[in-house]
Design brief:
This protein is an alpha+beta fold. It contains seven helices and eleven strands. The protein is rod-shaped, with a radius of gyration of 57 Å. The model is unreliable at about 65-70 (pLDDT under 50).
Amino acid sequence: MQTECPHCHTIFSVQSTDLESADGQVRCGHCLAIFAADDPQNIVNDDDQANIEAIEEAEETIEETVTTFPEEDIEHTIADVIPPELRAETRKAKPRFGFIGTTLLILAILASILAGAAQYAYYNRASLIKITELRPWLEKACVYANCTLPQAKDTKLFLLSSKNIFTHPNVKNALMVSATIVNQADFTQDFPIVELRFSNVRGETIAARRFSPEEYLHIPRNQISKMLPDTPVSFILEIKDPGNEMVSYEFDFL
């Protein structure tokens, strides 16, 4: 007789003599469950048995046609989300700067900064020397660099504090011009060249003349010192009368 385990549905044969001695109770050899083999629900008839045997034969045929591969021959590709350079073993393998390497790196950075500062100071020396606080340091730097600082000069900082023009008392067809200039810079600088221009009623220049420091100060060039900050300097110029068309005049410093 064929019986079916109600738990795992395994079908197997049992002998009537075995059933009588066990009072119809059997143990499934597959799942080890105990059930009543003579229960009509668990008895497999001939038609069911034939169907089951046909299914088992078909399954065996399918299994024979399926090619199996050993598990170790199958290659599994797993995406790595950690770049090689960020993996722990890679980071540990990277050499680190020691004390000497770090010191050399710092010195190289400082040298680059100093070189950049020196280059900036060289190309902007004409502006930097006008800063009174920086000039002593620049002079010391030039001692080591074997260079010479240019004289600080800014003609825009000369101020004409007073001016006057009148007829020359002793020379015919001549004029006398008096003026006072002040160095408003916070550093000493050379006396400027003074330019005097005369214009007519239409604003056109009808006469002009430039005077060097030795001309308007009446002092030899080798005796002229620097113009001190905030120290007024007065002078008088004697010039020929530019004529009746002259209605205005102005000074400029070069």
